TrEMBL record:
Database matches in NCBIfam families: APS_reduc, PRK02090.1
Organism from which the protein derives: Brassica carinata
Claim: Protein transport is one of the keywords in the record: no
Pfam families linked: PAPS_reduct, Thioredoxin
Enzyme Commission number: 1.8.4.9
Its biological purpose: Reduces sulfate for Cys biosynthesis. Substrate preference is adenosine-5'-phosphosulfate (APS) >> 3'-phosphoadenosine-5'-phosphosulfate (PAPS). Uses glutathione or DTT as source of protons.
Primary location recorded for the protein, binned into one broad class: plastid
Co-factor requirement: [4Fe-4S] cluster
Protein name according to UniProt: adenylyl-sulfate reductase (glutathione)
Length: 467
């Protein structure tokens, strides 16, 4: 069955060359269309059951640029070529988000491209967000794609970039970090400083600042964020919003709109779509990588683990954002991160509620540490109830407690966030949540569980080895 989509643009969505470098004095072409032309295609027939050659998008090629920032030289071009989109009239994007809440990703993508024309671009990371490019292709509208080349990506990601360009007949607009800033960071701190003092500084130089430059030449951008990707930071993202962090072409707060067409789509459905449409994907996915970023900061996850556990695994769950989507992290009235990301609040329900799990106070765990000749072995989880990775292991830990009831092994929990965090880091080997410790009999020092496999069988096996 063919799906007919009416693709047209009014005079208010004319495409401008003002965002191209000064050397581009002639109107570039997208396929056979001049950018100064009006697009008025009555209908495009998309056969979802046929071969992809039956789909004929308008975007055959996009012009690669070093920056999206418009040059002053563009003002020298004739009025026909330099006609710009008017500043998008103020609109209630919250209401628009509500109206699109039940819309399909294809509908949302079509609306985004219709409203912003050449002043919007897709942010492509080289992971499953290739689905965004497929949706844009299916609309039949011209579209732009950009990507942040940090210099630390996996070889598989670079190969995917090349494959995607050839598959869709486009040119990805790559953004690069400032060479002087990268050089200073590496010379002062080495190549892997993020393992020692956190990833934020490196991400700020290699990702956030290049993104900021890119977005200054746009009025809107499209991301592949999904609500199920990170329960702590992405669970409430709308399908469209005024970007809370970055500025767009006109400058100032509210000058940039952020579209999230797959916000309400689950990861499995994205993959079903990719397989159905035979879209090229990163070969790292087949090796267990789900969320893919830079090579040193990305690894495969085990079955049952959340996809974001493969990113910056040495840090707390609160730090699972690199800064590109910092606006997802809410703040309370005191300016602190909200409890569902990094806090302690009485409104956050406690976890590990089995009657066989002992809840330890600060005094209780200090006493446990002082005992050199324990009558029983203990297994203790250091946790924070807001942490999605702690929440994910609640069932297995409660099951372990019930299984070990009356066996001579005590199962306990110690809430190690908030005021207890520094103590836990200093005395209890806390690195990230959750941290699991075994206090053997006849030993004063606890042994840290080294694996991220937190199922009952894995925990039991480790316990049997060291108890």
């Amino acid at each position: 069955m063919a799906l007919a989509i009416n693709v047209s643009s009014s005079s208010s969505s004319a495409i401008s060359t003002s965002s191209f470098p000064s050397s581009e004095l002639k109107a570039p072409r997208i396929g056979s269309l001049r950018l100064s032309d009006r697009v008025n295609v009555s209908s495009v027939s998309l056969s979802l059951s046929g071969k992809r050659s039956s789909v004929k998008p308008l975007n055959v090629q996009s012009i690669a640029k070093e920056s999206f920032v418009p040059s002053q030289a563009a003002s020298m071009v004739t009025s026909e070529v330099t006609e710009k989109l008017d500043v998008v009239e103020m609109e209630d994007f919250e209401e628009l988000a509500k109206s699109l809440e039940t819309a399909s990703p294809l509908e949302i993508m079509d609306k985004a491209l219709e409203k912003f024309g050449n002043d919007i671009a897709i942010a492509f990371s080289g992971a499953e967000d290739v689905a965004l490019i497929e949706y844009a292709y299916l609309t039949g509208r011209p579209y732009r794609v950009f990507s942040l080349d940090t210099g630390r990506l996996n070889p598989e990601t670079y190969r995917l970039f090349d494959t995607v360009e050839k598959h869709y007949g486009i040119r990805i607009e790559y953004m690069f970090p400032d060479a002087v800033e990268v050089q200073a960071l590496v010379r002062n701190k080495g190549l892997f400083s993020f393992y020692e003092d956190g990833h934020q500084e490196c991400c700020r130089i290699r990702k956030v600042r290049p993104l900021r430059r890119a977005l200054k030449g746009l009025r809107a951008w499209i991301t592949g964020q999904r609500k199920d990707q990170s329960p702590g930071t992405r669970s409430e993202i709308p399908v469209v919003q005024v970007d809370p962090v970055f500025e767009g072409l006109d400058g100032g707060a509210g000058s940039l709109v952020k579209w999230n067409p797959v916000a309400n789509v689950e990861g499995n459905d994205v993959w079903n779509f990719l397989r159905t449409m035979d879209v090229p994907v990163n070969t790292l996915h087949a090796a267990g990588y789900v969320s893919i970023g830079c090579e040193p900061c990305t690894r495969a996850v085990l079955p049952g683990q959340h996809e974001r556990e493969g990113r910056w695994w040495w840090e707390d769950a609160k730090a699972k954002e690199c800064g590109l989507h910092k606006g997802n992290i809410k703040e309370n009235s005191n300016g602190n991160a909200a409890a569902n990301v990094n806090g302690t609040s009485s409104t956050v329900a406690d976890i590990f509620k089995s009657e066989n799990v002992v809840s330890l106070s600060r005094q209780g765990i200090e006493n446990l540490m002082k005992l050199e000749n324990r009558k029983e072995a203990w297994i203790v989880v250091l946790y924070a109830p807001w942490c999605p990775f702690c929440q994910a292991m609640e069932g297995s830990f409660d099951e372990l407690a019930d299984k070990l009831g009356g066996s001579g092994v005590k199962v306990a929990k110690f809430r190690a966030d908030g005021d207890q965090k520094e103590f836990a880091k200093r005395e209890l080997q806390l690195g990230s949540f959750p941290t699991i410790l075994v206090f053997p009999k006849n030993s004063s020092r606890p042994i840290k569980y080294p694996s991220e496999k937190r199922d009952v069988d894995s925990l039991t096996s480790f316990l049997n080895l060291v108890r």
